[in-house]
Amino acid sequence: MTYPDRRTVLTGTALSASLLNASAVAPAYAADLYASNTDLYGKLAGKEGTDFSRRYKRHELFDNSTDRRGPVNRTTTMALHGGGIEGGTSELCLAIAGYHPATLAVTPEGGPVHDYWMFEGLRPSNNSDLHVTSTNNDDRTALSMAAGSLNVLSLHGCTAAQAEVPTARPEAVVVGGLSADFRTYLREEFQAAGFQTIDGSTVPALAGEDPNNICNKTLLGKGAQLEMTTELRQSMFDPGHFSQLERPTHTNGLFDAFVGAARKAIARLEAQTDQVIP
Hints:
CATH topology: Aminopeptidase
CATH architecture: 3-Layer(aba) Sandwich
Structural class: alpha/beta
Strand order of the largest sheet: 1-3-2-4-7-5-6
Oligomer: single chain
Strand content: 15-25%
């Protein structure tokens, strides 16, 4: 089913028709041009809305009782390199949070929904220049959302070579992060859904185990990270529709299966006893 575009005008005149043909394939990043997000924001002052964007949603929590504990945000999904940087991660971030990537309607209807934060490249080309590695993400909103959540699921793109998977079957997801339970649930649910799933501990470069990785800067000091190969991300969208403007309206059954598996893993994690702050 096709939905209207989630933005009538994504970035004004700065995004030309050439964006429709940009595949946003994730490269291997030799070195970041910016030392941190704040470094990027300073050097690209005035470019937000044309070169990059930040989108997030925090759900209201309210407790005015004196006889019971109030609610605590449990899970936040993040796409640190969304838009044209690591194609497909923005759409997956929104969908796993419970929002249709094109309309932002709650999907499935009735929830549950989770908080989300995204940094997105909006350029017609050279979006990889906007990449800031996870351990250097110092966006204050992103950090505060991670610190106020029990869990973070951070979504990234990688190449098949980086994931160390055979060229005969390059579609794979590497599951990392410091939360052993979250990793286990994610691996089990992805495997049950038919996805080639790799334990991040076997791929040190993609393990996501650095405490300074924003996925681990939670209330519990641990989270999870997904590194999805280019081929896997492309397979989740209709053939020929992997451009930045087309992706939100051209997800397919594999996209739904991946999102469903991730949401099942989150539900299993949130049912644990340590998901209640004493």
